[in-house]
Amino acid sequence: MSTRSKRSRTFFVVVGVLVGLLSLLIVLPFLSWILIAVILAYVLRPIDQRLSRRLGSSLSAVLSILVGLAFVVFPIVLILAVAANQASQLFAQFDPQDISQIDDVVAERFGVQVDTAALHDAFTGAVKTGARGLAGNLFSIIGGLPELFIGFTVLFFVLFYLLKDGDSAVEWFRTVVPLEPDVREELFEETGLLLHNSLVGTAAVAATQAVLIGTAFLVLGFSNIVFWVVTTFVAAMIPLVGATIVWIPASGYLLLTGDLVPAIALFAFGAVVISSVDNILRPLVMRRGAELSPALTIVGIFGGIALFRFIGLFVGPIVLGMMELIIDIWVREYSESAPT
Protein backbone atom coordinates (compact mmCIF):
# COMPACT_ATOMS: atom_id res chain seq x y z
CA MET A 1 0.00 0.00 0.00
CA SER A 2 1.42 3.39 -1.01
CA THR A 3 1.92 6.31 1.37
CA ARG A 4 -0.90 8.21 -0.34
CA SER A 5 -3.27 5.25 0.09
CA LYS A 6 -2.35 4.94 3.78
CA ARG A 7 -3.08 8.63 4.31
CA SER A 8 -6.39 8.31 2.50
CA ARG A 9 -7.33 5.26 4.57
CA THR A 10 -6.34 6.96 7.85
CA PHE A 11 -8.32 10.08 6.94
CA PHE A 12 -11.33 7.98 5.99
CA VAL A 13 -11.18 6.07 9.31
CA VAL A 14 -10.93 9.32 11.31
CA VAL A 15 -13.87 10.86 9.48
CA GLY A 16 -15.84 7.64 9.89
CA VAL A 17 -15.23 7.58 13.65
CA LEU A 18 -16.24 11.23 14.03
CA VAL A 19 -19.39 10.77 11.97
CA GLY A 20 -20.18 7.60 13.91
CA LEU A 21 -19.86 9.42 17.24
CA LEU A 22 -22.07 12.28 16.02
CA SER A 23 -24.61 9.76 14.72
CA LEU A 24 -24.64 8.06 18.11
CA LEU A 25 -25.30 11.38 19.85
CA ILE A 26 -28.16 12.08 17.44
CA VAL A 27 -29.73 8.65 17.93
CA LEU A 28 -29.34 8.37 21.72
CA PRO A 29 -32.26 10.68 22.68
CA PHE A 30 -34.61 8.45 20.66
CA LEU A 31 -32.99 5.09 21.36
CA SER A 32 -35.93 3.81 23.41
CA TRP A 33 -38.39 4.69 20.63
CA ILE A 34 -36.16 3.01 18.04
CA LEU A 35 -35.94 -0.14 20.16
CA ILE A 36 -39.73 -0.17 20.49
CA ALA A 37 -39.97 0.12 16.70
CA VAL A 38 -37.55 -2.80 16.24
CA ILE A 39 -39.52 -5.00 18.64
CA LEU A 40 -42.86 -4.08 17.03
CA ALA A 41 -41.41 -4.74 13.58
CA TYR A 42 -40.38 -8.22 14.69
CA VAL A 43 -43.80 -8.92 16.21
CA LEU A 44 -45.74 -7.52 13.23
CA ARG A 45 -43.54 -9.05 10.55
CA PRO A 46 -45.72 -12.17 10.01
CA ILE A 47 -48.81 -9.98 9.48
CA ASP A 48 -46.93 -7.65 7.14
CA GLN A 49 -45.63 -10.56 5.05
CA ARG A 50 -49.15 -11.89 4.50
CA LEU A 51 -50.56 -8.46 3.62
CA SER A 52 -47.67 -7.51 1.32
CA ARG A 53 -48.45 -10.38 -1.07
CA ARG A 54 -51.79 -8.75 -1.92
CA LEU A 55 -51.40 -5.06 -1.17
CA GLY A 56 -47.77 -4.18 -1.78
CA SER A 57 -45.05 -3.30 0.71
CA SER A 58 -46.06 0.31 1.49
CA LEU A 59 -49.77 -0.24 2.09
CA SER A 60 -49.17 -3.47 4.00
CA ALA A 61 -46.67 -1.67 6.26
CA VAL A 62 -49.23 1.04 7.06
CA LEU A 63 -51.97 -1.49 7.78
CA SER A 64 -49.61 -3.57 9.94
CA ILE A 65 -48.74 -0.46 11.96
CA LEU A 66 -52.43 0.30 12.48
CA VAL A 67 -52.97 -3.29 13.65
CA GLY A 68 -50.01 -2.96 16.02
CA LEU A 69 -51.30 0.32 17.43
CA ALA A 70 -54.82 -1.03 17.89
CA PHE A 71 -53.98 -4.42 19.37
CA VAL A 72 -50.53 -3.98 20.94
CA VAL A 73 -49.46 -0.40 21.72
CA PHE A 74 -52.72 1.19 22.88
CA PRO A 75 -53.79 -1.79 25.03
CA ILE A 76 -50.37 -1.88 26.72
CA VAL A 77 -50.44 1.88 27.36
CA LEU A 78 -53.99 1.62 28.74
CA ILE A 79 -53.10 -1.32 30.99
CA LEU A 80 -50.02 0.48 32.34
CA ALA A 81 -52.04 3.64 32.95
CA VAL A 82 -54.73 1.72 34.86
CA ALA A 83 -52.08 -0.22 36.79
CA ALA A 84 -50.32 3.01 37.73
CA ASN A 85 -53.61 4.50 38.95
CA GLN A 86 -54.41 1.38 40.96
CA ALA A 87 -50.91 1.36 42.45
CA SER A 88 -51.47 4.91 43.68
CA GLN A 89 -54.87 3.93 45.10
CA LEU A 90 -53.35 0.90 46.80
CA PHE A 91 -50.89 3.08 48.62
CA ALA A 92 -53.46 5.76 49.43
CA GLN A 93 -55.95 3.21 50.82
CA PHE A 94 -53.38 1.30 52.85
CA ASP A 95 -54.40 1.18 56.51
CA PRO A 96 -51.65 0.59 59.12
CA GLN A 97 -54.27 -1.17 61.24
CA ASP A 98 -54.19 -4.06 58.73
CA ILE A 99 -50.64 -4.85 59.83
CA SER A 100 -51.65 -4.65 63.48
CA GLN A 101 -54.54 -7.07 62.90
CA ILE A 102 -52.20 -9.54 61.22
CA ASP A 103 -49.81 -9.14 64.16
CA ASP A 104 -52.63 -10.05 66.56
CA VAL A 105 -53.63 -13.09 64.48
CA VAL A 106 -50.05 -14.39 64.27
CA ALA A 107 -49.51 -13.89 68.00
CA GLU A 108 -52.79 -15.64 68.83
CA ARG A 109 -52.37 -18.62 66.52
CA PHE A 110 -48.64 -19.23 66.56
CA GLY A 111 -47.42 -17.50 69.70
CA VAL A 112 -45.00 -15.34 67.73
CA GLN A 113 -44.75 -11.61 68.22
CA VAL A 114 -44.15 -9.61 65.04
CA ASP A 115 -42.38 -6.26 65.00
CA THR A 116 -45.36 -4.33 63.65
CA ALA A 117 -43.53 -1.03 63.23
CA ALA A 118 -40.72 -2.54 61.19
CA LEU A 119 -43.16 -4.56 59.06
CA HIS A 120 -45.30 -1.50 58.47
CA ASP A 121 -42.31 0.61 57.41
CA ALA A 122 -41.05 -2.10 55.06
CA PHE A 123 -44.47 -2.69 53.51
CA THR A 124 -45.35 0.97 53.03
CA GLY A 125 -41.90 1.66 51.63
CA ALA A 126 -42.23 -1.16 49.11
CA VAL A 127 -45.74 -0.13 48.04
CA LYS A 128 -44.77 3.52 47.77
CA THR A 129 -41.68 2.77 45.70
CA GLY A 130 -43.60 0.40 43.43
CA ALA A 131 -46.43 2.86 42.92
CA ARG A 132 -44.05 5.68 42.06
CA GLY A 133 -42.04 3.48 39.73
CA LEU A 134 -45.08 2.15 37.89
CA ALA A 135 -46.63 5.57 37.59
CA GLY A 136 -43.36 7.21 36.58
CA ASN A 137 -43.66 6.48 32.86
CA LEU A 138 -47.24 7.77 32.73
CA PHE A 139 -46.50 11.00 34.60
CA SER A 140 -43.38 11.69 32.52
CA ILE A 141 -45.44 11.24 29.35
CA ILE A 142 -48.12 13.64 30.55
CA GLY A 143 -45.45 16.19 31.52
CA GLY A 144 -43.67 15.96 28.18
CA LEU A 145 -46.24 15.92 25.39
CA PRO A 146 -43.93 17.54 22.76
CA GLU A 147 -41.32 14.83 23.40
CA LEU A 148 -44.09 12.24 23.17
CA PHE A 149 -45.15 13.58 19.77
CA ILE A 150 -41.58 13.54 18.47
CA GLY A 151 -41.01 10.08 19.89
CA PHE A 152 -44.12 8.65 18.22
CA THR A 153 -43.10 10.30 14.95
CA VAL A 154 -39.69 8.61 15.12
CA LEU A 155 -41.35 5.34 16.12
CA PHE A 156 -43.80 5.47 13.22
CA PHE A 157 -41.23 6.19 10.50
CA VAL A 158 -38.65 3.68 11.79
CA LEU A 159 -41.34 1.01 12.10
CA PHE A 160 -42.72 1.81 8.64
CA TYR A 161 -39.38 1.44 6.89
CA LEU A 162 -38.42 -1.62 8.92
CA LEU A 163 -41.60 -3.32 7.70
CA LYS A 164 -41.36 -1.97 4.16
CA ASP A 165 -37.64 -2.55 3.56
CA GLY A 166 -36.72 -4.91 6.38
CA ASP A 167 -35.73 -7.81 4.14
CA SER A 168 -33.53 -5.56 1.99
CA ALA A 169 -31.86 -4.13 5.09
CA VAL A 170 -31.13 -7.61 6.46
CA GLU A 171 -29.68 -8.75 3.12
CA TRP A 172 -27.54 -5.60 2.90
CA PHE A 173 -26.31 -6.20 6.43
CA ARG A 174 -25.40 -9.77 5.50
CA THR A 175 -23.20 -8.50 2.66
CA VAL A 176 -21.29 -5.94 4.74
CA VAL A 177 -20.66 -8.09 7.83
CA PRO A 178 -16.98 -9.15 7.52
CA LEU A 179 -17.47 -12.73 8.74
CA GLU A 180 -17.10 -16.15 7.25
CA PRO A 181 -20.41 -17.38 5.78
CA ASP A 182 -20.89 -20.15 8.35
CA VAL A 183 -20.15 -17.83 11.29
CA ARG A 184 -22.38 -15.13 9.84
CA GLU A 185 -25.30 -17.49 9.33
CA GLU A 186 -24.90 -18.90 12.84
CA LEU A 187 -24.94 -15.38 14.28
CA PHE A 188 -28.10 -14.45 12.36
CA GLU A 189 -29.86 -17.72 13.18
CA GLU A 190 -29.07 -17.67 16.90
CA THR A 191 -30.02 -14.00 17.14
CA GLY A 192 -33.39 -14.82 15.55
CA LEU A 193 -33.94 -17.63 18.05
CA LEU A 194 -33.01 -15.30 20.90
CA LEU A 195 -35.50 -12.67 19.71
CA HIS A 196 -38.26 -15.26 19.39
CA ASN A 197 -37.65 -16.80 22.81
CA SER A 198 -37.47 -13.41 24.53
CA LEU A 199 -40.27 -11.57 22.74
CA VAL A 200 -42.67 -14.43 22.02
CA GLY A 201 -41.86 -17.37 24.27
CA THR A 202 -41.08 -15.75 27.61
CA ALA A 203 -43.69 -13.01 27.15
CA ALA A 204 -46.41 -15.55 26.28
CA VAL A 205 -45.68 -17.62 29.39
CA ALA A 206 -45.58 -14.54 31.62
CA ALA A 207 -48.80 -13.13 30.13
CA THR A 208 -50.62 -16.45 30.61
CA GLN A 209 -49.59 -16.67 34.26
CA ALA A 210 -50.54 -13.03 34.82
CA VAL A 211 -54.02 -13.56 33.36
CA LEU A 212 -54.53 -16.71 35.45
CA ILE A 213 -53.56 -14.91 38.65
CA GLY A 214 -55.72 -11.93 37.73
CA THR A 215 -58.68 -14.26 37.20
CA ALA A 216 -58.08 -16.00 40.53
CA PHE A 217 -57.77 -12.68 42.37
CA LEU A 218 -60.98 -11.45 40.74
CA VAL A 219 -62.88 -14.56 41.87
CA LEU A 220 -61.50 -14.20 45.40
CA GLY A 221 -62.58 -10.58 45.63
CA PHE A 222 -59.20 -8.84 45.49
CA SER A 223 -59.17 -5.22 44.36
CA ASN A 224 -56.72 -3.45 42.00
CA ILE A 225 -56.65 -6.48 39.68
CA VAL A 226 -54.82 -4.74 36.81
CA PHE A 227 -51.98 -3.73 39.14
CA TRP A 228 -51.53 -7.33 40.27
CA VAL A 229 -51.67 -8.59 36.69
CA VAL A 230 -48.88 -6.22 35.63
CA THR A 231 -46.86 -7.10 38.75
CA THR A 232 -47.28 -10.80 38.01
CA PHE A 233 -46.23 -10.33 34.38
CA VAL A 234 -42.99 -8.63 35.41
CA ALA A 235 -42.34 -11.21 38.13
CA ALA A 236 -43.06 -14.11 35.77
CA MET A 237 -40.28 -12.90 33.47
CA ILE A 238 -37.74 -13.51 36.25
CA PRO A 239 -36.29 -17.06 36.24
CA LEU A 240 -36.63 -19.29 39.32
CA VAL A 241 -38.81 -16.75 41.16
CA GLY A 242 -41.62 -16.18 38.68
CA ALA A 243 -45.26 -15.75 39.59
CA THR A 244 -44.82 -17.50 42.94
CA ILE A 245 -43.66 -14.20 44.40
CA VAL A 246 -47.27 -12.98 43.97
CA TRP A 247 -49.59 -15.91 44.68
CA ILE A 248 -47.70 -17.39 47.66
CA PRO A 249 -47.75 -14.14 49.71
CA ALA A 250 -51.39 -13.65 48.68
CA SER A 251 -52.23 -17.13 49.99
CA GLY A 252 -50.40 -16.35 53.21
CA TYR A 253 -52.28 -13.09 53.59
CA LEU A 254 -55.63 -14.87 53.21
CA LEU A 255 -54.56 -17.49 55.74
CA LEU A 256 -53.50 -14.91 58.32
CA THR A 257 -56.71 -12.92 57.90
CA GLY A 258 -58.80 -16.02 58.61
CA ASP A 259 -59.90 -16.89 55.07
CA LEU A 260 -58.80 -20.51 55.29
CA VAL A 261 -60.70 -21.97 52.31
CA PRO A 262 -59.75 -19.17 49.86
CA ALA A 263 -56.14 -19.42 51.05
CA ILE A 264 -56.01 -23.15 50.38
CA ALA A 265 -57.81 -22.74 47.04
CA LEU A 266 -55.41 -20.03 45.86
CA PHE A 267 -52.36 -22.01 46.97
CA ALA A 268 -53.60 -25.14 45.19
CA PHE A 269 -54.46 -23.18 42.05
CA GLY A 270 -51.02 -21.59 42.02
CA ALA A 271 -49.14 -24.83 42.68
CA VAL A 272 -51.09 -26.96 40.20
CA VAL A 273 -52.24 -24.62 37.42
CA ILE A 274 -50.05 -21.51 37.38
CA SER A 275 -46.79 -23.33 38.03
CA SER A 276 -47.56 -25.97 35.40
CA VAL A 277 -47.78 -23.30 32.69
CA ASP A 278 -43.98 -23.30 32.57
CA ASN A 279 -43.88 -27.04 31.97
CA ILE A 280 -46.69 -27.14 29.40
CA LEU A 281 -46.68 -23.84 27.49
CA ARG A 282 -42.97 -22.99 27.48
CA PRO A 283 -41.87 -26.05 25.42
CA LEU A 284 -44.61 -25.25 22.88
CA VAL A 285 -43.64 -21.61 22.26
CA MET A 286 -39.90 -21.67 22.89
CA ARG A 287 -37.42 -22.70 20.23
CA ARG A 288 -34.17 -24.51 20.84
CA GLY A 289 -30.96 -22.51 20.90
CA ALA A 290 -29.79 -19.22 22.37
CA GLU A 291 -30.66 -20.21 25.93
CA LEU A 292 -29.79 -17.41 28.36
CA SER A 293 -28.65 -18.30 31.85
CA PRO A 294 -30.94 -17.25 34.74
CA ALA A 295 -28.25 -14.94 36.16
CA LEU A 296 -27.86 -13.03 32.89
CA THR A 297 -31.63 -12.92 32.46
CA ILE A 298 -32.13 -11.33 35.88
CA VAL A 299 -29.33 -8.80 35.30
CA GLY A 300 -30.72 -8.07 31.83
CA ILE A 301 -34.26 -7.52 33.12
CA PHE A 302 -33.39 -5.15 35.96
CA GLY A 303 -30.58 -3.42 34.07
CA GLY A 304 -32.84 -2.99 31.06
CA ILE A 305 -35.65 -1.54 33.18
CA ALA A 306 -33.20 0.88 34.82
CA LEU A 307 -31.92 2.02 31.42
CA PHE A 308 -35.00 1.86 29.16
CA ARG A 309 -37.87 1.54 31.68
CA PHE A 310 -40.67 -0.85 30.72
CA ILE A 311 -39.29 -1.72 27.26
CA GLY A 312 -36.03 -2.72 28.95
CA LEU A 313 -37.86 -5.74 30.34
CA PHE A 314 -37.39 -7.27 26.88
CA VAL A 315 -34.37 -5.37 25.56
CA GLY A 316 -32.03 -6.10 28.48
CA PRO A 317 -32.04 -9.92 28.21
CA ILE A 318 -31.77 -9.73 24.41
CA VAL A 319 -28.67 -7.50 24.57
CA LEU A 320 -26.92 -9.70 27.15
CA GLY A 321 -27.93 -12.80 25.19
CA MET A 322 -26.34 -11.37 22.05
CA MET A 323 -23.20 -10.51 24.00
CA GLU A 324 -22.98 -14.07 25.32
CA LEU A 325 -23.47 -15.39 21.78
CA ILE A 326 -20.75 -13.13 20.36
CA ILE A 327 -18.32 -14.16 23.09
CA ASP A 328 -19.02 -17.86 22.46
CA ILE A 329 -18.42 -17.46 18.73
CA TRP A 330 -15.27 -15.42 19.33
CA VAL A 331 -13.78 -17.97 21.71
CA ARG A 332 -14.60 -20.84 19.36
CA GLU A 333 -13.62 -19.25 16.04
CA TYR A 334 -11.14 -16.44 16.59
CA SER A 335 -9.27 -16.91 19.87
CA GLU A 336 -5.69 -18.17 19.86
CA SER A 337 -6.83 -21.50 21.33
CA ALA A 338 -9.42 -22.05 18.56
CA PRO A 339 -8.60 -24.83 16.13
CA THR A 340 -7.25 -23.67 12.76
Question: Which properties best describe this structure?
Answer:
340 residues; mainly alpha; 2 domains; 13 helices; 84% helix
Structure description:
With 340 residues, this protein is mainly alpha-helical. It has 2 domains: 148 residues, no CATH class; 162 residues. The protein is elongated. The two termini are 28 Å apart.
Query: In percent, how helical is the residue content?
Result: over 70%
Mean pLDDT: 78
The tally of structural domains comes to: 2
Question: What percent of residues are in strands?
Answer: under 5%
Structural class estimated from helices and strands: mainly alpha
Strand count, sense and barrel status of the largest sheet are:
none
C-alpha geometry: elongated
Number of helices: 13
Q: How many individual β-strands?
A: 0
Order of helices and strands: HHHHHHHHHHHHH
The value of Rg in angstroms is 25 Å
**Distance between the amino and carboxyl termini:** 28 Å
The residue ranges in which pLDDT falls below 50 over 5 or more consecutive positions are none
Strand-helix topology:
Elements: H1 3-27, H2 31-55, H3 57-92, H4 96-110, H5 116-143, H6 145-176, H7 181-219, H8 225-236, H9 244-256, H10 260-274, H11 276-285, H12 294-308, H13 312-333
Concise summary:
The protein has 340 residues and is an all-alpha fold. The chain contains 13 helices and no strands.
